[in-house]
């Protein structure tokens, strides 16, 4: 099934309240969390903080796919943060793509969680995203195929650390119902390793 290496550095940026550079395999992103900060009047929420996400691709301008990434990360952060503690304010999550080898969304989601943890903002839960791939040989693996032609389907599943609840999922390609179940189980087991990685990272100070 393959194993995916991870490394990160907390406090990578000086301006955000929390930041991280996270690498998963050959995919790397930098994430920063600002907030709670002053919010524009049009976005103000009386009973909680509004959450915004800005995703910058490695090159070019943000397209439809990038807007989808932003929506995914924003919704997950809204679920995980205790936004009710910060009414009439905003929490800004900024993601910069550095390198993408196939698991950009899950790496970005995990970087957002680590940046939130680094900022010290109150959270109801941690969250972890896992990407697994179904090859043409019907093998599920956490390591992206070297050749995109060998890829039959991909599964991005996001879990919380309290009950293992699925917070979000993105599934593309051709697959059977059984393969979806197997992919979810594989991703759930890998998410446990990610939560342990978070804990080790925080204890070590991100080095």
> How large is the count of helical segments?
3
- Helical percentage: 25-40%
| Strand-pairing-aware structural class | alpha+beta
Sheet with most strands: 5 strands, mixed
First CA to last CA: what distance? 28 Å
Low-confidence stretches: none
What is the CATH architecture term? 2-Layer Sandwich
Explain what the structure shows:
The protein has 207 residues and is an alpha+beta fold. It has one domain: 2-Layer Sandwich (Ribosomal Protein S5, domain 2), CATH 3.30.230. 29% of the residues lie in helices and 34% in strands. The strands form two sheets. It has a five-stranded mixed β-sheet, with helices on one face. Strand 2 and strand 3 form a beta hairpin. The chain starts with 5 loop residues before the first strand and ends with a helix.
Question: What is the gist of this entry?
Answer:
The chain is α+β, with helices and mostly antiparallel strands and 207 residues long.
Architecture blueprint of SSEs:
Elements: E1 6-10, E2 18-24, E3 27-38, E4 50-56, H1 64-80, E5 89-99, H2 104-119, E6 127-135, E7 140-141, E8 151-160, E9 166-173, H3 177-204
